[in-house]
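Figure-free illustration: sequence to structure, shown twice.
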Amino acid sequence: METKKQKFYCNTCIWETNHTILKHHKEYYEETIYFEDANVGEISDLLWSNDIYQIIKCNWCDQISFRETSINSECTNKRDIEENFYPKRNVNQHKHKKIKQYRKTLKIFI
């Protein structure tokens, strides 16, 4: 099996790093719902969801985490795709730490 890699934010490294997807599981569900419309008659609607569960590992620090992605028939654009990481990602919380690290690095070379 080919090892897949993707970039994700890492809480330990405090930036986006390459992650290896260690395990991957997909679940797909669909259901057709029928209802009556006074003007048209019987109408059917297909409802579906596609859930992806992944165990991922940061290639820089080896931190293991869990990623869950969910998309369904109600999604209209990329912003509607639900993505969760466990432990939760602290992207905004770490921005000030990243700036401090950058300043310290600059002081070394200046």
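We now fold a second protein in the same way, so the two outputs can be compared directly.
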Amino acid sequence: MQAPAKPKLVVLLVVDQMRGDYVDKFLHQWTGGLKRLVEEGAWFRDAAYPYAATETCVGHSTISTERSLRHTAWSPTIGGTVDLGRV
């Protein structure tokens, strides 16, 4: 079996403030982009953060990088980026 070709584009979509079960509940009503992403893309139903507290920006910075919060440039305490060379 041959490995699939590498994708030309990777799209990561994170939806805040929407319950996970809404995808199944409303999928039949969707006709465009979200429906295509769910039906043709990779869908991670059991995705979870490996830590207890989550905050939007810092949490999103870990999703596509697989890095822990302490290795990202986002600081939840100051509300923005940090120059890691000066910390």
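Summary for the second example: The chain has two domains: 12-47, 50-87.
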